[in-house]
Design goal:
This protein is about 40% helix and about 15% strand. The protein is α/β, with parallel strands linked by helices. α1 runs parallel beside α2, α10 packs parallel to α11 and α12 (about 325-335) packs parallel to α14. The N and C termini lie far apart (about 50 Å).
C-alpha cells in the first residue's frame, strides 16, 4: 500500500493526488480485539517508516488496549460544548492539517455530539480519505445498516448507530477479527471487556452464546460475500474476453476435517461439523490411506463410522491414498478450495517431531492461506 518515505514525520512529504485507502477491522461483538489488531498493525507500519497517527481511540477502560497505543502519536480531541457540558470528539481538521500517511480511527459507526460538523464518524472518515490520507478503522457487524432488522431479531436489541452498506463495499480491505464465543465469554468474565459489575447482565443479554454464534456467522458470511463479489468483478475486468470460469472463483468458507484410525476422530468430526454449521459452510471429511498398511477390522470399522457420520452431517467423505499425509491433505484442500482445516492434536513424541518435523508445520508451509484448527480431544 505504501511507497517508502522518510522516517521522520517532520520531513517533507508530497502526497499523491489520490483518495486515501481504507481498511476496516470488523468483528462479531465488542471485545474480539479489533482495536488491538488495528493498533498492532499501526506499530508495524510505523517501524517500517510509515507516518502513523491515532485519530481517535476508544479504550473503554481496557488496560491492554491503552498499553498497545503507547508509542503512537495521538491527535488531541476537539472540545464541544453541549447542554452545559464540555464533551470531546475526533478532531478531523487537526488530522488533515497534520497530514499523516495513515490515521487510525476507532468505532466507525459512532454518532457525533450535536453541534459537530458532521453527524457520524464515518462521514468524518470520508473527509479524511478525500484528503488522500489512508485510514484504518473498526466496526462491529451489528452496525451494518442492512443487517439491522436481522440483528434485532437475533439479539432483541435495536442497534441505533449504523453505517451504510456501501462503506464496507467500498473499503479497499476488510479484515475479520474472529474469536470463538467461548473465548469472548472468558474475556468478559475476566473483566477485559466491561467492568465486573456489568458482566452477568451482559451474559444474560447481548453476550448470550446463541447471539454470539449467530453474529459470528453474520460477520464471516458478510465479508465472504463482499470479497467474493470483488473477486468476480476483478476477474470480469481482467478476462479480456477470454472464456473465464467465474463459478470457480469463490471465497465462501469450506471446512475439511482430517480423520485417522484413532477413535477420537469421531469427536473431531462432530466438532468440525459444528464449525461448518456456525459458518454455514459445506463440510468435507478426509481419510488418508497408507498404501503399504492394511487396516485392522476395528480400524476399518472406525473409518466406516466416520464416513457414515459425515454423511449424517450432510458432508462429503473423501478417501485418498498416499505416503505423505500433509501433501495429500494439501492436494485435497486446493482441489476443493478449502478455507478451514480441522485436525486433532498429534500424539507423536517430541523425539519423533525433531527427527521428522512437525506435521502441522509441514501442513502450514504447504497451505499458508488456510486457517488450521488444532482440536484437543479425549482419547477413549
Amino acid at each position: 500500500m505504501y511507497q517508502p518515505q522518510a522516517s521522520s514525520p517532520d520531513s517533507s512529504y508530497i502526497r499523491p493526488a489520490r483518495r486515501g485507502k481504507h481498511k476496516i477491522f470488523i468483528g462479531m461483538a465488542p471485545g474480539v480485539g479489533k482495536t488491538f489488531k488495528m493498533l498492532e498493525e499501526g506499530h508495524t507500519l510505523k517501524r517500517n517508516g510509515v507516518d502513523v497517527v491515532i485519530g481517535l481511540l476508544e479504550t473503554h477502560g481496557r488496560k491492554e488496549t491503552a498499553a498497545k497505543a503507547e508509542g503512537l502519536e495521538m491527535i488531541p480531541r476537539q472540545q464541544i460544548s453541549h447542554n452545559g457540558l464540555v464533551l470531546t470528539e475526533m478532531d478531523t481538521d487537526a488530522i488533515i492539517a497534520r497530514q499523516p500517511q495513515l490515521a487510525l480511527v476507532d468505532e466507525l459507526a459512532h454518532t457525533n455530539i450535536p453541534g459537530s460538523q458532521r453527524e457520524k464518524r464515518y462521514q468524518d472518515v470520508e473527509v479524511i480519505l478525500a484528503e488522500g490520507i489512508d485510514v484504518y478503522s473498526t466496526v462491529n457487524i451489528q452496525h451494518l445498516e442492512s443487517l439491522n432488522d436481522l440483528v434485532a431479531r437475533i439479539t432483541g436489541i435495536v442497534v441505533r448507530e449504523r453505517i451504510p452498506d456501501r462503506f464496507l463495499e467500498e473499503a479497499d480491505e476488510v479484515v475479520v477479527v474472529d474469536v470463538t464465543p467461548e473465548t469472548l465469554e472468558e474475556r468478559l468474565r475476566e473483566g477485559k471487556i466491561y467492568a465486573m459489575e456489568k458482566v452477568e447482565q451482559s451474559l444474560q443479554n447481548f453476550f448470550q452464546r446463541r447471539n454470539l454464534i449467530a453474529l459470528r456467522e453474520l460477520a464471516l458470511r458478510e465479508v465472504a460475500d463482499n470479497v467474493e463479489g470483488d473477486a468476480v468483478a476483478e476477474a470480469t475486468r481482467t478476462s479480456n474476453g477470454e472464456n473465464l470460469e467465474i463459478q470457480n472463483i469463490s471465497v465462501h468458507e469450506r471446512v475439511l476435517v482430517c480423520v485417522s484410525t484413532e477413535p477420537n476422530s469421531v469427536q473431531l468430526l462432530r466438532r468440525g461439523a459444528r464449525i461448518a454449521g456456525y459458518m454455514n459452510a459445506p463440510l468435507y471429511t478426509l481419510f488418508v490411506d497408507n498404501p503399504d498398511r492394511f487396516l485392522t477390522k476395528i480400524e476399518a470399522l472406525h473409518v466406516e463410522t466416520c464416513e457414515r457420520l459425515c454423511r449424517e452431517f450432510e458432508g462429503e467423505f473423501l478417501r485418498v491414498s498416499g505416503y505423505n499425509v500433509p501433501e495429500e491433505i494439501a492436494k485435497v484442500a486446493k482441489s476443493y478450495r478449502i478455507t478451514q482445516i480441522v485436525l486433532g492434536r498429534s500424539r507423536k513424541s517430541r523425539w519423533k517431531i525433531l527427527l521428522r518435523g512437525s506435521f502441522i508445520d509441514n501442513l502450514m508451509r504447504l497451505l499458508p492461506q488456510i486457517d488450521i484448527h488444532i482440536i484437543r480431544t479425549q482419547n477413549k
